[in-house]
């Protein structure tokens, strides 16, 4: 069983770090209606954004905590999930010493962030049916392995990893197991958030960019134990999520019925696209998906990609990724967009 200890995986300089204390961090927030703010060197003329935003994004966190049955102290928000992931690297991985494990084919930013932070990335390929090779992963672990990254549902493959594989990694790895759930809202599987109190080494990242339709505001979410979140809070920039992003997130999160309708529509259109792809001659394999995209093996990915570009349709060519030779990734669009895609696919020769 895993014997996780936050102190053994946190970088020494982070453990001893005294975090920057912003003006609004020092101010105890109570009834602010009649307060005069002369603490943060702001422009005093009101325009809606002349004041610094809440550095802890408490209003956004309160909604997320209520919706997901978690505590606000178990949530960290970032400028997109990429900032959240970068903070995890900087808090727990010693440059030029530590290593992480990723499972290609997967989201490319894990590798990019490893390079930026001078951290070795040990790649263990998924199986041919895109599942983790748990024994090989654990064999690759040494005393300097700090994080295992799992994207589930996975990008670009679209499938979720088996519960048994994830549990085995959580129980047998002394570092952090980060589960990237960017696409969880399109899956029938339950989020691993329900296990957040069971496994102290479990970290879950989510986003408002996919199912919530807020890619333009850049808001990433991290759920973890209070001890992990407290370390990340030490090193995050003081005002990393701007006021406009917080306002727009609150507005959208309060309209959950509309979000559910949009998710249902995307799933319905996903099923329609999957059926239509069965009738395309040059499609050789359609991979199971629990995301808002589908990975498809074709006869010649480069050729088909170029043909669709000429028709004004932009998809993703994944043929250079491991286990994805001649594979294209189609994001699920609106009913009208999917109709155009299907029509053009049928006309290609």
Automatic annotation (TrEMBL):
PROSITE patterns: AA_TRANSFER_CLASS_2. Its EC number is 2.6.1.9. Residues 46-344 form the Aminotransferase class I/classII large domain. GO terms for molecular function: histidinol-phosphate transaminase activity; pyridoxal phosphate binding. It comes from the Bacteria. The modification N6-(pyridoxal phosphate)lysine is found at residue 210. Signal peptide: none annotated. GO terms for biological process: L-histidine biosynthetic process. It is an enzyme of class 2 (transferase). Homodimer. NCBIfam families: hisC. This is Histidinol-phosphate aminotransferase.
